[in-house]
Structures are given as C-alpha cells and as structure tokens.
Specification:
By secondary structure, this protein is mainly alpha-helical. About 35% of the residues lie in helices and about 5% in strands. Among the domains are: about 30 residues, no CATH class; about 45 residues. About 5% of the residues are buried.
Length: about 120
C-alpha cells in the first residue's frame, strides 16, 4: 500500500496502465518520475478525447529547459515535411527564447568596450 494525501491507495493500474497514486497532484512520489503537473484543456473549450495523454515540455525556462528544447526541436524536424509552417513557427519560438536569454546574459556581464579600435 502507498500512503498518499492521508489516504491509503493501492498501486492498481488505471486503464492506461498508470499508478493512480503517482498521478495524484499532491502525491509524495511526484518527484520520482512522470506525474500530473499540468491540467490541459482545448482552447476551443471542446472536450479532450478520454484517452488523451500529453507530456509538457517547457521551453521558456526551468531545470530541464535545454532537454525540453531539444525535444521540441526534434518534433519540429519530424513534422517539417507534413507541416512546414508548424516547423518554422516552433523554430522561431525556440530562437526567440534563445535570443532573449542571450540578451539577458549580455546585460548581466556588461563590460565597457576596449579603448582600442581596429583600423
């Protein structure tokens, strides 16, 4: 038995084969692997397929940002032939975050230009 949120839960698998204790938002085991951190809805408000499952890869920052960006870049390349605009949009967003971080780093490490000039 797993004790989670002050109630005992067995580790029976759900219809997707996942342990319900591990999917609980407040579960003490959430730092051990994959868990339900985000609630995803459609922008249109339409319901998701009951078998819907997604993994969120944050590209704006966070502990694993570089790994997430590599995953998103791989996805962009994989859909490039079928949807070139999606590929371009994803790569543009990745580039924008990279430029924003570069700009912030440059501001932090700002130093005066050397007094010499190239002629």
């Amino acid at each position: 038995m797993i004790k989670c949120n002050s109630k005992e839960m067995c580790c029976d698998k759900d219809e997707r084969g996942e342990c319900q204790a591990a999917l609980d938002f407040n579960c003490e085991f959430k730092e051990k692997g994959l868990w339900g951190k985000y609630i995803i809805t459609k922008a249109s408000g339409k319901p998701l397929n009951p078998n819907f499952y997604a993994i969120v890869l944050r590209i704006d920052g966070g502990q694993y940002v570089e790994a997430c960006r590599e995953g998103v870049k791989a996805f962009a390349e994989a859909v490039k032939e079928a949807n070139p605009l999606l590929c371009e949009d994803i790569k543009a967003r990745l580039w924008a975050y990279g430029m924003k971080e570069l700009s912030e780093d440059m501001k932090k490490n700002e130093r005066p230009w050397p007094s010499y000039r190239y002629e």
